[in-house]
Amino acid sequence: MNSLLFSLSTTLSPPLQPPTHRRRLQFQPLNIRASSPTTSFSNNRVVVTRERGKNGKLIKALAAQGINFLELPLIQHTHLPDLDRLSALLTATTFDWIIITSPEAALVFLDAWRAAGSPSVKVAVVGAGTASVFNETTNSSKRFIDVAFVPSKATGKVLASELPKHGNEICSVLYPASAKASQDIEEGLSKRGFQVTRLNTYTTESVQHVDQMIFEQALSASVVAVASPSAIRAWMNLVPDSKQWDGSVACIGETTATAAKRMGLRNLG
To answer: Around Cβ 107, how many Cβ atoms within 10 Å?
Structure first.
């Protein structure tokens, strides 16, 4: 697969040209900004791969730039038993910090938080995309959810190293996360003396069925946008080895981009 990976923000710049060498994998981090009105992806297409109904923000940003899109869900989220424990803990226990590391984790947390009676909580988030989920809650909810910390860099390791802690006092942290999330946060915080309770509230899996007609269209698209390591794996597993695909894979977020490199995508730029 011939792929170029880049970081994607909420708006997109003019398209990158397809790589000139086949069967080579590239990774090139870029800051994507809004393009001028005269330059767009108007003759190309971006494939959006989150669960159906959860691609709205990206689709809106693409449309604002005159960019065509194709919705091809590659992943699905499944709730795990710890989700019930999350509601119970929020009802019975007060934590100094609650850590949320992705938009999906934020949505799952908000459901449990409402089920617990909307208690007052102080939240640390990784990245602007995750923070935006809380910013979109109603004004009445915002009174009880204090998004009080965002790290200088949107990674779990940086959050673990920068999360405020008052002296030598025991600081309790609740970390509801995907079962597939790394242990960077709990390990980093534990080394600093935080008391961390992790709950695996959901997991991410590849979809069981992909519409073949839509998939064939996706193979001719300029860009496939992925927002998680699971989505990268799902796309790479779908594309046949014999298929010469010259499109680009847009990694939304540094964690996704880092995971892509770990999967064997090399920085050749």
So the answer is: 15
